[in-house]
Amino acid sequence: MKHRTGTEEDVGAHFGLPHAPCLPARPVRDAGFSVTRLECRLDGDANRLVSLPPDEAYFLMLYLKDAHHCDVAPDGTETETRRFRQGSICLVDLAHGASIRLFSDLYSLAFQLPRELFREIAEFSAAPKATRLKCRRGEDDDVMRNLGAALLPLFESRGSSYAPVLQHIAIAICAHLLHAYADHRGQGVSSSTQLTVWQEKAAKDFMIDHFADQFPMAAAASAAGVSIRRFIEGFKGATGQTPQQWLLRYRTARAKQYLGERSMTLAEIATRCGFTGEDHFTKGFRRVTGTTPAGWRARWLN
């Protein structure tokens, strides 16, 4: 099954997959949208270079399985190879193209998102009227994870029956990106204290890897390679949250997953999610959600 028209198939071709299934749409007016399902296997090769040409568009990758790759600069310089978790995203501005070197198989959804599409979405909806998006690397994104799950069955659809659903999901994706990653230049912290996208990723990776543990924020700052003062200021400038607020929201999101399981007690969930006790868990959960873990579980299970 292949839903392709025009140049949408180019995304797969750049990954060595010219016949990768692709779903195109025009969600609002003239600007196109496409999502391609990539199953890129190295087949014994040590690595593979993938290059995307310059375009007036953003490229979004949603990882369906863990992957390892590095960025390749225009001069050929390569960054450190990093792990990109299942369910995380990368968001790249294609103004100057982009290149990566794969060191693992890649299973993902790849989105081609023209700048004009975001302008149309901003006019059509209540989304922010942003002209730029922030570059993201391995960002944990529950919304995109869920929207990606909604997209996967459409690749099995026949004919054009998928089109209305795809249009709605495409609008939801673009509106979410505008809300979550709008780049308001000139606001917040100065460029001298901002974290780089890689420093932000390193800190978040550390906190995710250790979210069930009690650790000082100085350890997350160390993972990012900056002082604790610069880390706190730069992290808030990049995310709009302090590191402690971000970690609390992440722990709460993980707790919600466990609350859907009847077999686990609140005390067990508290321990598994890095809270010091059930009381600490309840207070933190209420701060984020406005309700208690017990209240949330009752609504979820009933």
UniProtKB/TrEMBL annotation:
Keywords: DNA-binding, Plasmid, Transcription, Transcription regulation. Signal peptide: none annotated. The keyword Transcription applies. The keyword Glycoprotein does not apply. Residues 201-299 form the HTH araC/xylS-type domain. It holds the Pfam family HTH_18. Gene3D superfamilies: Homeodomain-like. One of its GO terms (molecular function) is DNA-binding transcription factor activity. This is Transcriptional regulator, AraC family. The lineage of its organism: Bacteria, Pseudomonadati, Pseudomonadota, Alphaproteobacteria, Hyphomicrobiales.
